[in-house]
Amino acid sequence: MAKVELKQPVVNEIIEDIKDAQSIVLVDYRGLTVAEDTELRKQLREAGVTYKVRKNTMMKRAFEGTEFAALDEHLDGPSAIAIAKEDATAPARILCSFAKTAKALELKAGVVDGVVYDVAGLTELSTIPSREVLLSKLLGSIQSPITNFARVIKQIAEKDGEAVVAEAATEETPAVEEAPATEE
Prior knowledge:
- It is a single chain.
- The chain has 184 residues and is α+β, with helices and mostly antiparallel strands.
- It folds into two domains: 3-128, CATH 3.30.70.1730; 130-171.
- 53% of the residues lie in helices and 15% in strands.
- The chain has six helices and five strands; from the N terminus they run αβαβαβαββαα.
- It has a five-stranded antiparallel beta sheet with strand order 2-3-1-4-5.
- The longest helix has 42 residues, at 131-172.
């Protein structure tokens, strides 16, 4: 069997992984301890991110003709690839956070929604909250005025209710008439 025939299944697997990817981040993993690598893989897996160590030549072939072809220039030295299909900022967020504690992990570059980012760009992207957090903040800001309005209306209704009760109480209490003063 020729070498190309042996490598083609690996290239096809990478192509399948990146087919519907929203983002890809390349990292240099050299120097990570087994415990650090295990923890990193666990965090990425929990976020729905695929993380694999692949040969650069295989990734170059898989990236040909895709929006990820711009990463070819960053494929030097050992590389691992983090692929996200749901949350586009998840790989950058997790890898940047992990790189703060594991100094051996180095980000190389990434593509998020078709835009190529260098290390500084990925670090900036890592500060963006996840889609779910952003949606909950949006929902909270939309609900806030409505909630405040409802609270004010309730307070007005309660005040009016107290005024009605106070008015009814004064009407029910008969006024005490004073007897005319007698002269002695």
